[in-house]
Every structure is written in C-alpha cells, then in structure tokens.
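User: For my dataset I need records formatted as: sequence, then structure tokens, nothing else. Please produce one.
Assistant:
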Amino acid sequence: MNYTHIKTLGELKAIHYVSRSIKEELRQNLIKALEAKLPVFDGIFGYDDTVIPELERAILSKHNINLLGLRGQAKTKLARLMVNLLDEYIPIVEGSDLNDDPLHPITLFGKQQIEKLGDATPIAWLHRSDRYTEKLATPDVSVADLIGDVDPIKAASLRLPYSDERVIHYGLIPRSHRCIFVINEIPDLQPRIQVSLFNILQEGDIQIRGFKIRLPLDIQFVFTANPEDYTNRGSIVTPLKDRIDSQIITHYPPSLETGKKITTQEARIKPEQQRIRIPELSRDIIEQIAIEARQSEFVDAKSGVSARLTIAALENLVSTAELRSLLNAENETCIRVTDVFGIGPAITGKVELVYEGEQEGAGIVAHNLIGKALRTLFVQYFPDPEKVKKQKNNTVYDPITRYFGSGKEVQIFMNEPEAEYRKKLDDIPGLDDLIFDSSLKTDIAERWFWKEFILFGLAEYSVLSKKSIGLEVRFGDLVSSMLNLDGMEFEEE
C-alpha cells in the first residue's frame, strides 16, 4: 500500500505503521512472490535449479550472502534484482543522513528531531530504487570510505569537540542503513579493511576512531567474489568468510540454448540494425565459440570466459554485416559465415591465455576457436565427413569435391556485394542438394549462409582447403593446395 501522502510522524502512527528490518522485509516479500507464482529474478537464465533456489533459501534465512563465481556469471545482476523484493517506499526522518526509521531512529539527529518536534516530525519516503548501494572493492578503499571518519572541517565550522558525535562523516555502509549494500570483488579489499567489517556483520554496529557510539545498522549485505585461486591479488580472510552466512556458487550457462537466451537479452542491437537478418545458426556459432574457449587448453580455465564475450561478439557480428551493407549501399543483408571472423576483437579482449596460448598469439587462438565451433556444429546438420570418407561408393560431398578438384577456387570477401556473393555460391554444384537432403527448413534469404557454412565445415574437416588473407577467404581443392605448398617449399630450399 502506498502511504507517501503521509508527511508527519503523527500521521504515520495513526495508520499503525509497523517497521520491519530489511531482512524481514525481503523475506516476507519473497514469500508473497512465491505464493503468487511471480517471477522473482526475472531475466536470469540457467539458474532455476541451482543458484536461484539457494539464493531464495538464503533470503528466507535472513542471511548475508556471498556470490562466488567466475566473471560474467550474473553475480552483480542477481544482487541488483533483490531490490525488487523491497517495499516500494519506506518512511525516513526527513533530513536524516542515515535513513532513520521514524519509529526507531538510530542517529543523534533523528532522536533530537523526534524529541523536539514529537508527532510533528516531518518524514519523507524513500523509494526502493534508492535503497541499493554498490561498491567495487579496490586495494585503495579505506576504512573511512566504508565506515566513516572524524571530519575536522565540520568540527571547526560547528565549533564542536572531536568527542561530539556530530563531527563524524559517515561512510558508505552507515549511509546504507535499511538498504542492500553490495561489495563487488571482496577479495581485493586489503585484509585490514575486511577486518573492519567483522563487527558490522556480527553485531550490526560500527565504531569510528574510538567513539563510544553504537549504531545498530540494518543492512542486507551481498558480496561477490571470484574463486580464491583465480588470482594472487587477495582472498577473503577466514573470520570474515565465517561471518557471511550463505555462500552461493554461480556457474556458466549449462547449455548452448541457455547461453543464447542470455546473449539475445543482453546484446544491444540498435533499431537501425533490425534490418539485418540473423540466422539462428550464427547465434549458435557464437555460443559454441564460448563453449570451446572454456574447454581450450590455450585459455586459462581459472580466469573463465565471461558471458560478455558472446554479448560483445553478437554485437560485433551484426555490425560487421551492417558495415558491408553501408559500403555497398544495400538496404538489407543477412549475416554471413565470413562475418564471424569480424568478432575477433570480442574474443581476444575477453580470454586470458595460458603460456602456450600467449606463444600462439591471441589472434590465432581466436581464429582456432571459431574453427572448432564451426567443426562442432557442422556434424549436427550434415553427415560427418570423417565417416563419409570411409564409404567406397559415391558420397554426398562428391559433387562439391569434384568441382574444386577440377581446379576451381572460390574467393569470398567479407565486404562483397550481395549479388556477387550469391553467384559464387550458386555456381558450386551439390550445395543445394545437400541442404535439401538434410531437411533443413531454411528461409530463402538464409540459404546462402548455409551454403557458405558447408564450405567452412568441409574445410574444418580437411575435405577442402581454406586460406584466410585479410578480408578474403579462399576455398580450393585440398590435394592441389598441399602440392602447391610442397612446391613452394622446394623452391625456397
């Protein structure tokens, strides 16, 4: 119920308003949402049977929470969504720095206002969107930043001794009284700063510079952290970890389909880019690249591969097609397989390589991950070329291999006009039959994407040769390519 029309403490008492702690507020509102079958953590995919039930149990238990997981696993997003479980508005003593509850003030200011004005004490209403504070833990964060410190300027201007509570400048945590307070990457806090949180978590109060004050803070703490072995920058000190009631381990999407939902939801596709057709398979390729990266021997598994990789990759993919359409003055275009190589910057900037990967080079590792993704997905739609090779009779790939075996080459340029691109693929025999025989229900506009996908897939299985030179990809006969390569090596010797 909305009580924001109430402006004084007397009016608040008249409606028999009952204050609740923030943990009780979260608990009761979660119970109502569950009973009403309402989505609590809307927009979070892949956690329905794992993380979300554990988070709900922690809220029901009124626990402070640590979300532990690799980067890009929606830890901060989960914390932000907890705001939806707060009451829409809560009353505060107007002018209070620490969101004083009019019925249970904790600051000197709040107590003095009520003592002086009584039921005429003015109150304000705080919206739930203003009851969320987030702090990124960095090594330079101080106790004063989080807890507070004596303000000498305030003491001088008000002519107050340092023993007066009014000279204190409160930090982020006291100012988050009756709010959700999130510290991201808690291991990055220096151990002595982590120690300053002990009393807040255990007793709910703070101490500043030896002041004998007790502020029974009412805060829902949420911490986020990477696994301790991810980096040598630091860890959560054991006594602090012991005081955090529930530690919930997050994870990456359990399936390609779940990953696609996340990427589609989070990717920022501009309105003017809606004209670009995005085949479903191109989205699969992007998700498979992330899956391959998480399994790659060249990528540091402890660092992880963030979901931000696929989000940025989809945005890059669409922009690659958009750039081509702008250069060729074409109103409509469809994603091509060659466009996938335009997402390289989204990969190289988001994977942390081990020593062997550094030796290979980030660009080569990215290129190889794309190739592995294409190889994995190819056999989900077309016959496995390695099994087909063992057949003695004519195979489904014979018309294609004969075409290239006759000395033909196909050069596909990333920024090639649509008409030229389609003609090159239409000239290759066997592609249409292969698509038809595989019973693929493809839109006519996406047919050339599938034709190109077949060429890339066969190249990954060493049925055709493939050379990438700048913005050009050249397909040819594998045997001829090997002979030419041998000849070049012979001449150099």
